[in-house]
Specification:
By secondary structure, the chain is an alpha/beta fold. The chain has eight helices and nine strands. The strands form two sheets. A seven-stranded parallel beta sheet has the order 5-4-3-6-7-8-9, sandwiched between helices. Helix 4 packs across helix 5. The longest helix is centred in the first third of the chain and has 36 residues. The protein is globular, with a radius of gyration of 22 Å.
Length: 224
C-alpha cells in the first residue's frame, strides 16, 4: 500500500503533467491560427474580414441539377461577406444564372476543356496569377485527375477535391471504360496533388479516395 504522502506526491505530478499538456495544446492551437492567418493574403494585402476570401469553383455548366445545382444552391444562401465564389466553366456561352451571380459579386471564367491541356493550363495559370486565388475547389463525380494536375502545375496553392458520387454515371460503354481507367489512376494520384479532401458521404469518400487517404494519412471532411 502507498502512504498518504506518496499518493499526494503522485497526484501532484499528475496535475503538473496535465497542466503541461494543456499548455502544449494551447501552443499548438495558437500556432495553427497564426499559420492560417499568414496564409490568408491577397497579393501583398493582408486578408481582412472586410474583404471576403475568394474561392475558385470548378466546374459548373448550364445544367440546373447535379453538381451545378449543388454549387449554385450553396452560393445563393452562403454568407458572401466572409467567402465569395468565382466560377470556372467549359461552356462558351453565357450561363443562364451568370448575370444573377455576377450581381452577387461572383466572377465567371469560360475556359477550355482539359482535353486541350496546353490551352487549359495557360488560361488557368493566367487566372490564378491575376486574381491570386488561394483556394480552388474541384467538385468531381469521378477521379478525373487531369484538370487537378494542371491546376497544380499552374500554381494553385490549396486544392480541395470534393467527391459527389459513388459511381460513373455514363451509359456509353466505351466512354465508361475510359472514365473507369482515369478514375483508378486518379485515386492513386490525388494524395500527391490535393490538400483537402471532402465527400458528400462515406460511400462517396470510398469511391473517390485511395486507402492512403481513407486510413487517415490525410483528413476527409464530410459535407452535405
Amino acid at each position: 500500500m502507498w502512504s498518504y504522502s506518496t499518493k499526494e506526491l503522485i497526484e501532484e505530478q499528475i496535475s503538473k503533467c496535465g497542466k503541461r499538456l494543456v499548455n502544449i495544446g494551447c501552443c499548438i492551437v495558437i500556432y495553427m491560427l497564426v499559420h492560417v492567418e499568414t496564409e490568408l493574403f491577397v497579393g501583398e494585402r493582408e486578408f481582412t474580414m472586410s474583404e471576403p476570401m475568394r474561392v475558385l469553383q470548378a466546374f459548373i455548366t448550364n445544367d440546373k441539377g447535379g453538381l451545378t445545382g449543388y454549387i449554385a444552391q450553396n452560393y445563393r444562401y452562403m454568407d458572401k461577406t466572409k467567402v465569395q465564389f468565382d466560377f470556372l466553366t467549359y461552356d462558351t456561352d453565357k450561363l443562364d444564372f451568370e448575370d444573377e451571380f455576377i450581381n452577387m459579386g461572383a466572377k465567371f471564367y469560360h475556359i477550355q476543356q482539359p482535353s486541350h491541356p496546353i490551352d487549359f493550363y495557360k488560361s488557368l495559370k493566367y487566372i490564378l496569377r491575376r486574381e491570386n486565388y488561394k483556394v480552388i475547389h474541384f467538385n468531381l463525380s469521378y477521379a478525373n485527375f487531369v484538370p487537378v494536375i494542371l491546376a497544380k502545375l499552374a500554381g494553385a496553392h490549396n486544392i480541395i477535391i470534393h467527391s459527389h458520387s459513388t459511381d460513373i454515371d455514363d451509359r456509353r460503354i466505351f466512354i465508361r471504360k475510359i472514365k473507369t481507367g482515369i478514375h483508378l489512376l486518379g485515386k492513386m494520384i490525388f494524395p500527391f496533388v490535393g490538400n483537402s479532401f471532402w465527400a458528400c458521404s462515406s460511400d462517396a469518400a470510398k469511391w473517390m479516395f485511395s486507402k492512403k487517404i481513407l486510413n487517415g494519412f490525410l483528413p476527409i471532411m464530410l459535407s452535405m
